[in-house]
Write a structure and sequence with these properties.
alpha+beta, Nucleotidyltransferase, domain 5, 2 domains, five-stranded antiparallel beta sheet, 13 helices, elongated
Length: 395
C-alpha cells in the first residue's frame, strides 16, 4: 500500500472514530484505539469539522505587551463601576474612573446615574481639571469599553472631536480589551472594601473609601512603574507620607473658641477620619458623629488603635460591606490581570461631598453646590509642583 493510500486510510479511520466518540480530539482517539504505528507514520490529520467549530469555538485572548505612552495624559483609560448598593451619603450609585496611561494616576468621580449627560459633564470637568493642573499637557487618545449609554454616543463623541482626542472604544463584549481600567476599578474596590471592613463603617461611606483608596494609590509603589509611585513618575519627587492616618480611626478635632458653649465646655469633639483634603498634608476629612456632618479640620488628635465604626453601625452591616462592590467585577481575576499586564494601577482622588452644614472656618469649608452632578467636591488632585522635566518635553 502506498504512503498516500496509508495516510488516506488513517484519516478516514480517525474521522469515523471522531464521529463515533462524540467529536473527540485526535490525540485522545489515537490513545484510545492503540492504532498501528504504520498508520500513524505520516501524522494523519483530522479533516475540518464544521460541527466542532460551531460547538467548541471559544474566545481567544491574545496576551501581548502593549506599548506604553511616553508623555503624561497622552492616553486616557476609562471605565464605570455600578450600580453600588446602598447609595452613598450623596445618593451616588456609580463611580467612573479616568486613568493616565503614562503615570497610572487615576481620577474617580461619583455619579447619580450613568446617563450620557452626567458622564459628559464629569468628563469635561476632568479635562478642565487636568488642563488647569498641567497646562502643557495635550490629550491625544481616549480608550474605553463599547458601552453606548456611557461612551459611544453623540454627546461624548462630540466632546472628543472638538477637543482633538481620538476615540478608541474596545470591541463589543470584549471587556478584557479595556484591561487597565478594569484592573484599576478592581484595585480601588477591593482596597475600599478592605478599609470599610476594617473600620466597620456603614456601607454608605463607600464613596469616601474609594476616594481615600485612590489618594493612597497615587502614593504607593506600582509594579507597572518598576516600583515607583504615580506621584513620583509625574513630579519626579517622592510623596510625603507622614500625614497618613488609619481610615475610620477616632479623631478628636479642636472646637474653635467661637463655637464652644462655655468656658468649661469640652474643647474637642470625637469624629471619624474618612479621608484627605485636596493636596494638603495638614487638613483631614472627618465625619462628625454627633451632628452627622462632614468637616475639614487641621487641629486633630488621632487615636489610630481605635475605630468608631462599630459604635455607629452596630452589628447589622457586615455582610453588606463584604458584597458592596460585587457589581464592579464583570471579569474573572485572571482575565483582567493577563489582559492588562498591570498588577497595581494607582491613582489620585476626587472627593464626595455629603450635603450637610460644615462647621469649620471659611478657609476650610466645603462650598455648597446645588445641582447634580456638581454636589461632589472635586479638589485639585495634586499639589502645584514646579514643572516636571517630563512635562516640559510635551511642549
Amino acid at each position: 500500500m502506498s504512503t498516500k493510500q496509508t495516510t488516506q486510510k488513517a484519516e478516514e479511520l480517525l474521522e469515523l472514530w471522531h464521529l463515533r466518540l462524540g467529536h473527540l480530539n485526535k490525540a485522545d482517539i489515537i490513545k484510545m484505539l492503540d492504532l498501528p504505528t504504520a498508520l500513524l507514520r505520516n501524522n494523519p490529520e483530522l479533516r475540518f469539522c464544521k460541527v466542532c467549530v460551531e460547538s467548541k469555538q471559544q474566545r481567544r485572548f491574545i496576551r501581548k505587551p502593549v506599548a506604553r505612552t511616553t508623555h503624561p495624559f497622552e492616553l486616557i483609560h476609562s471605565d464605570l463601576c455600578g450600580p453600588i448598593n446602598p447609595p452613598s451619603h450623596s445618593s451616588k450609585r456609580y463611580f467612573i474612573v479616568y486613568i493616565d496611561d503614562y503615570s497610572r494616576l487615576a481620577f474617580p468621580y461619583f455619579l447619580h446615574t450613568k446617563t450620557a449627560t452626567e458622564i459628559v459633564s464629569v468628563f469635561q470637568e476632568f479635562l478642565a481639571r487636568v488642563e488647569a493642573m498641567l497646562p502643557t499637557v495635550k490629550f491625544s487618545r481616549f480608550h474605553c469599553d463599547n458601552a453606548r449609554g456611557e461612551y459611544d454616543n453623540s454627546l461624548m463623541r462630540g466632546i472628543l472631536r472638538v477637543s482633538g482626542i481620538r476615540f478608541e472604544p474596545s470591541p463589543p463584549y470584549s471587556q478584557h480589551k479595556n484591561g487597565v481600567s478594569e484592573r484599576m476599578i478592581r484595585t480601588l474596590a477591593i482596597k475600599a472594601r478592605s478599609m470599610l471592613l476594617d473600620s466597620q463603617l456603614e456601607t454608605e461611606f463607600w464613596a469616601e473609601a474609594v476616594s481615600t483608596t485612590a489618594y493612597l494609590h497615587a502614593r504607593s509603589p506600582s509594579q507597572t512603574l518598576n516600583g515607583m509611585t504615580p506621584f513620583e513618575v509625574l513630579w519626579q519627587k517622592k510623596p510625603v507620607l507622614n500625614h497618613l492616618r488609619r481610615f475610620g480611626c477616632a479623631a478628636y478635632r479642636l472646637i474653635p473658641k467661637e463655637q464652644r458653649v462655655g468656658k468649661l465646655s469640652s474643647k474637642s469633639r470625637e469624629c471619624i477620619m474618612i479621608g484627605y483634603v485636596h493636596s494638603s498634608t495638614t487638613i483631614w476629612k472627618l465625619w462628625d458623629r454627633s451632628r452627622k456632618s462632614l468637616v475639614h479640620s487641621s487641629d486633630v488628635v488621632f487615636h489610630e488603635s481605635t475605630t468608631l465604626g462599630a459604635q455607629v453601625l452596630g452589628n447589622s452591616g457586615t455582610d453588606k460591606r463584604s458584597e458592596i462592590f460585587s457589581s464592579c467585577f464583570p471579569l474573572a481575576d485572571d482575565l483582567i490581570s493577563d489582559a492588562s499586564h498591570d498588577t497595581s494601577s494607582d491613582g489620585d482622588v476626587s472627593y464626595e461631598l455629603v450635603p450637610v452644614p460644615v462647621e469649620e472656618p471659611a478657609e476650610h469649608s466645603v462650598p455648597a453646590i446645588a445641582d447634580p452632578p456638581g454636589d461632589d467636591l472635586i479638589p485639585d488632585a495634586l499639589p502645584a509642583e514646579p514643572s516636571s522635566p517630563l512635562l516640559a518635553a510635551t511642549k
